[in-house]
Amino acid sequence: MKTEEDNILKGSSEDNFDEILRISSNLKVPASSQGKEASWDKLMHSIEEDSIDEVKVIPLLASRKLWYSVAATLLVLIAVTSLTYRYTTVEFHLAKGQKTSKFLPDSSEVKLNSESKIVYRRFGWLSNREVSLNGEAFFCVKHGSQFTITTEFDRKVIVTGTKFNVLARGDHFEVKCFDGSVNVQISSKKIISLTKGVGLTINKPGELPSQIKLDSIAEPTWIKGEFYFNNISLNIVLDELSRQFNIAIKTDGFAPSARNYTGFFKNNHLVKALDLICIPMELTYQISSDSTRVIIKK
Question: What is this structure's pTM?
Fold first, then answer.
């Protein structure tokens, strides 16, 4: 049996709307002791309570996420700071034809020869007083300061308040003490003590060090641009010549490592320097037009 509401669905939209109003006006709503305003207040209060319940949960989750993020950030910062403190280094690297003077964190002075490099820790100097050297440098150590200079082949110079020169280029190693005293350690062997006016030299790994006597001078002559050699491999001499004048040197017809040289040159005039080396060795040379290359022949 079809109801009145079913019949309404078949009529026009306007008729349907009128009928819905008529029927709904006859519907009975359960009585309520609350007025319209009270009912509205109750509804809004219910909505607010639901909102409060949601707010209580969301900030807690957000707070945890925030703390996790902060904690992770702090851990990263601590790790980065620790690594920076431990591994960040200061490095001075000179090209050919350059010289400079630098100061270590304890105010000790280091004079670097051409094509030389020193490296030490930027932070924590008090806990790790170590300088790595590749090349040649003259150290004027502040009185009372102590540190170690490391070079290739595990050769070390242990110093405290002194003036000395260290040459460490490949196989060739040389230490000269100009004031005070220094201790030199060759690999794991015993320590050799050098006093003022005494030095030692090693030309290849495994070779026993040879002692050398110094002239009564206050600092090495290379600082003034003068280079002296006493029965030294010509290969070492030509390397220094190339370094001081920033030139490429090629030899033809002989092996410089098989010949020794005694003499000197200055780094203020290339032709004069070549004459001082080549004429005693009965060699000839040819300089390129731009003075950047030299060929030395027998």
Answer: 0.70
